[in-house]
Specification:
The protein is of the alpha/beta class and 257 residues long. Helix content is 40%, strand content 17%. It has eleven helices and eight strands. An eight-stranded mixed β-sheet has the order 3-4-2-5-1-6-7-8, with helices on both faces. Helix 1 packs across helix 10 and helix 4 runs parallel beside helix 5 (124-132). The longest helix has 17 residues, at 144-160. It starts with a strand and ends with a helix. The structure holds adenosine-5'-triphosphate (ATP) and magnesium ion (MG).
């Protein structure tokens, strides 16, 4: 049985879809059979970012009970496979998210890694996407609003028995105002698996509908994603560092209760 990992954030725009695709390609290039599932059905970004827009059978058909998930798997770049969401919004209302869990389970029977790209927010679609996977990675930006929403995602993971394996801090600039890694680990209680830099090549690549890890393999973001893939697949994720006795004061400092 393969591993199913959902990338979740609470707050929108933290980089989930970008990380999902590039991590998927890194894992696939390292010889792991990998599929990315676009569970953000309202936005359907995965296919767009891969530059592939036509998909006769999508996750919507699977969630409506019209198709088996295996028939909704398409070939992406560098041996990556993906399950797209449909672009048309009128289908959105009819989907049954409860079917997502079965679909992910079925894929985990065939793949080493099933990466689930989650919708932002904590509405039903996002919650069901989190519940569909066995493991979760929080994708946040180094800012308080992102962290506060991340804590809500952590609460969902705990409640639903989804293992939060760690945090990706994306779009790090190194500015002194950014939240520090040790503070994050103390607050969230999970390790920061990878810090990924703010990198102008990421936005350029997404505008060109080409994954940055393929377009610019030596860009700082691409290097970081390959490191991330090694940690995720090698299981070498360190324990979080927890600062003792300062938990509530850190939360207060960030305006989180
Ligand atoms: N490390 C980075 N450096 C620079 N730009 C980035 C980085 N990561 C993501 N971006 C850009 O930020 C935007 C949002 O990224 P993305 O769509 O992956 O976020 P998301 O969390 O999936 O958003 P949503 O919550 O809406 O699904 C995109 O334009 C993307 O190119
Ligand atoms: Mg997204």
């Amino acid at each position: 049985m393969g591993r199913s990992i959902v990338l979740a954030s609470g707050k929108g725009g933290t980089g989930k879809t970008t990380v999902a695709i590039n991590l998927g390609i890194a894992l696939a290039s390292a010889g792991k059979k990998t599929v990315v599932v676009d569970a953000d059905v309202a936005m359907a970004n995965v296919g767009i970012l891969l530059g592939i827009e036509r998909a006769p059978i999508s996750l919507h058909n699977v969630l409506m009970g019209e198709a088996d998930v295996k028939d909704a798997v398409y070939e992406g770049p560098a041996k990556l496979r993906y399950v797209p969401a449909a672009l048309s919004l009128d289908k959105y209302a009819k989907v049954d998210f409860e079917r997502l869990r079965d679909a992910v389970k079925e894929l985990a029977g065939d793949y080493d890694f099933v990466i689930v790209d989650c919708a932002p927010g904590l509405a039903k679609d996002a919650r069901e996407a989190i519940k569909a996977a066995k493991e979760a990675i929080l994708v946040i930006n180094p800012e308080p609003a992102s962290l506060a929403d991340g804590l809500k995602v952590k609460a969902i993971c705990d409640r639903e028995d989804v293992k939060l394996i760690g945090v990706i801090v994306n779009a790090v600039t190194g500015d002194r105002s950014e939240i520090k890694k040790v503070d994050l680990e103390t607050i969230i209680g999970a390790p920061v698996i990878q810090e990924l830099p703010e990198d102008k090549e990421v936005r350029k690549a997404s505008a060109l509908q080409e994954p940055v890890i393929i377009r610019k393999p030596d860009a700082p973001f691409s290097r970081g994603v390959r490191e991330l893939a090694r940690k995720v697949s090698g299981g070498a994720i360190p324990e979080p560092r927890i600062k003792k006795g300062v938990f509530s004061s850190i939360l207060a400092a960030f305006g989180i209760k």
